[in-house]
Amino acid sequence: MYPKQRDGITIQTVGDEMVVLDQDNDQIHQLNATASLILSHCDGQTSDILIADVLVCQFDIDHNTAIGDVQNAIIQLRELELVR
Known about the structure:
About 25% of the residues are buried. The chain is globular, with a radius of gyration of 12 Å. The protein starts with 8 loop residues before the first strand and ends in a 5-residue tail after the last helix. It is α+β, with helices and mostly antiparallel strands. The chain has a three-stranded antiparallel beta sheet. The protein contains three helices and three strands; from the N terminus they run βββααα. The protein has one domain (about 10-80): Coenzyme PQQ synthesis protein D (PqqD) (Arc Repressor Mutant, subunit A). A hairpin with a 2-residue loop joins strand 1 (about 10-15) and strand 2.
């Protein structure tokens, strides 16, 4: 799976978090540090497994937990129409 940020969103980083403006859907989303890190790696070239590797290094969690967290976050980001 190679998720990619959708065109038409504007991202502002605030500390470890992100504020995402979705002008197409007239919505603003505030993402926590984990979701922000995941979204920042959704470039269409990085797999969910590689994103999980980043989470393992960043947050001191085991790889299986990281994979689950990434997959769940990507599902939610897709539901919000922030990634495709």
